Automatic annotation (TrEMBL):
It comes from the Bacteria. Keywords: Hydrolase. Residues 335-499 form the DUF1023 domain. This is Alpha/beta hydrolase. It comes from Nocardiopsis eucommiae. Coiled coil: none annotated. It holds the Pfam family Abhydrolase_8. GO terms for molecular function: hydrolase activity. InterPro entries: AB_hydrolase_fold (IPR029058), DUF1023 (IPR010427). Residues 1-22 are annotated as: Disordered.
Length: 558
């Protein structure tokens, strides 16, 4: 009889195809496409205007070519664009398979470890198990064999899906993409609706004539791409509040609308303060109104503080993104306020990172978060000075206070917003090659990242980083939908969060059993308020090993 120790899962060897090599092939097609057009911009906007530049390269006057010749040129452009997209879809399919396979292997290892843990309970377990087997119950090997069959069946399903996609990829590289693949390209941000329209293909999801904000980001972007310049200007004038915080709308458009909104905030706050002062003055001087006066005084003081934050933000943003390279992607005051600022244009950057903050963060924390983003950009530039980087300070959820941080409610409440935001980054990206996207979760922000990654919409990114994390609602990195090597974690020696990991938010992401790539952080200061101490907030300090490593991850070096 085979012992538990000798039992193996017995999956076939992993597929030998290498996603980075496949993506490199897609980039070569992109380079050929750009060289053919004589530029590096979008085909859908540059097709005709590039004709003269292309003529210089091959001594063929495309601008006056016959219709048949021009059609052949456009057909070549179409084939290169679609070919690159099909290769990237295939690389993504392999990534999905490898991630799912790793999760299956991890669950098998956990099942064996669970039996060993039960044996560790000693004599009582051994006697109980012996009695169960004596009366014909399941042996340990029987239980493990049943688990193995379930996992093998699950693997057969994902392997079958991968093989179906492989066959489809072979066919579509020869004959062109199916409608399903076109839709997947658009959803993944690999192809714009404008490009499909340029090539005369029918977008299968149908571009909506108008939107109400309930559409997914790729459809929002398809709608925007379908508009003329005049129609876009009209939409911005008609419904700025919808568009300025809508995933799928380009960053420069959101920035313009939010800057316009923010510029009017000081006057709105002054008006609110004046209303409160009038209300206070209307109160009689009797002792019965002392409490009400104190409440009004506190509200006035809070509004004056908010005005100071707004004015500082206006100064930091400058007159335009062209001056400061800062993009205001969302802004709203109030108890559930939002403030999202990108250092660098995420729609054109080679590498894009989203920084998700933790406990007690509010929209008024934006200055501190922007400072961390600036440091991350500099760290990424040190890792790769030739690439273009963008780091986003994402205060896009209602963060918990310290008592609430023990619960999962605020993390679950952030899932849809963070998932949609990451999908929106893919939809609006305008480079010929897909950007390398990283999501960095700090403190409770890492818990938000974990819940989002395991949510229905997933987390559209290439890498995730977890610093000062209390946990991600998972026992192993593979449960997050990423390969373990694409999950990076670090906790400083003096970070008080170490006293809370493994309690309510799953396993410690820096533990060996979790499977993430653990990187170095400085010990950090043991000073500061209990329970977290200053070390909890020192991962982004200039010159720190944690900042250097995160910059390397953003730059795609890990």
């Amino acid at each position: 009889m085979t012992s538990v120790e000798d039992m193996t899962l017995g999956l076939p060897d992993p597929i030998e195809a290498d996603p980075p090599t496949i993506r490199s092939g897609a980039e070569e097609l992109d380079e050929l496409h750009a060289d053919m057009l004589g530029q590096s911009g979008d085909t859908d906007s540059q097709m005709r205007s590039s004709a003269n530049q292309f003529t210089d390269r091959i001594a063929w006057d495309i601008s006056s070519a016959s219709a048949d010749e021009l059609m052949a040129w456009e057909e070549a452009s179409r084939a290169l664009t679609y070919g690159a997209g099909i290769l990237r879809l295939w690389a993504g399919d392999i990534d999905t398979y490898l991630t799912d396979r790793a999760d299956i292997v991890q669950r098998w290892q956990q099942a064996k470890a669970d039996i060993q843990a039960l044996r560790g309970m000693g004599r009582d377990y051994a006697i109980g198990q012996a009695v169960v087997e004596l009366f014909g119950g399941e042996t340990e090997a029987d239980r493990l064999a049943a688990t193995r069959e379930e996992l093998r069946s699950e693997h057969a399903g994902i392997w079958g899906t991968l093989m179906t996609r492989a066959e489809r990829t072979k066919i579509e590289l020869r004959t062109g993409p199916s409608k399903e693949s076109l839709e997947r390209m658009v959803e993944a941000g690999l192809l714009t609706a404008g490009q499909i329209a340029t090539y005369g293909d029918h977008y299968p999801a149908m571009v909506p004539d108008e939107i109400d904000g309930s559409e997914p980001p790729h459809l929002v972007n398809a709608w925007w791409d379908s508009l003329t310049e005049e129609e876009r200007e009209q939409a911005m004038a008609d419904d700025p509040d919808l568009l300025r915080d809508l995933d799928g709308i380009p960053a420069d458009v959101r920035d313009q609308l939010n800057r316009d909104y923010l510029a009017e905030e000081p006057d709105r706050i002054d008006s609110e303060i004046e209303d409160l002062r009038e209300e206070r003055e209307a109160l009689s001087n009797g002792p019965g109104h002392d409490g009400k006066r104190r409440i009004l005084d506190n509200q006035i003081e809070e509004l004056e503080a908010e005005k100071g934050v707004v004015e500082t933000l206006l100064d930091d943003l400058g007159d335009s993104s062209a001056d400061t390279d800062k993009f205001l992607l969302a802004f709203e005051r109030g108890d559930n306020g939002r403030a999202i600022v990108s250092q660098g244009n995420p729609d054109t950057a080679d590498n894009v990172a989203t920084l998700v903050p933790g406990t007690t963060t509010t929209w008024q924390s934006i200055e501190g978060q922007m400072g961390r983003a600036d440091n991350l950009v500099l760290a990424a530039e040190n890792a790769d000075e030739d690439a273009d980087h963008a780091v986003i300070s994402w205060i896009g959820y209602d963060a918990p206070n310290i008592p609430e941080a023990a619960g999962k409610g605020r993390a679950e409440g952030a899932v849809d917003d963070l998932s949609s935001f990451q999908d929106g980054l893919r939809a609006t990206h305008r480079n010929s090659s897909q950007s390398n996207n990283t999501v960095i979760g700090h403190s409770y922000g890492s818990t938000v990242v974990g819940h989002t990654a395991q949510g229905d919409g997933g987390l559209n990114a290439d890498e995730i980083v977890l610093v000062g994390s209390p946990g991600t609602n998972s026992r192993h990195a593979s449960e997050l939908g990423f390969l373990a090597e694409d999950v990076h974690a670090s906790t400083a020696e003096n970070d008080g969060i170490t006293g809370f990991t493994g309690l309510t938010h799953g396993a410690d992401p820096t533990s060996p059993d979790f499977g993430a790539t653990v990187f170095e952080s400085a010990p950090g200061s043991s000073d500061g308020a209990w329970p977290l101490r200053d070390a909890h907030s020192q991962y982004f300090l200039d010159g720190s090993p944690s900042l250097r490593y995160m910059g390397e991850v953003i730059a795609g070096n890990h």
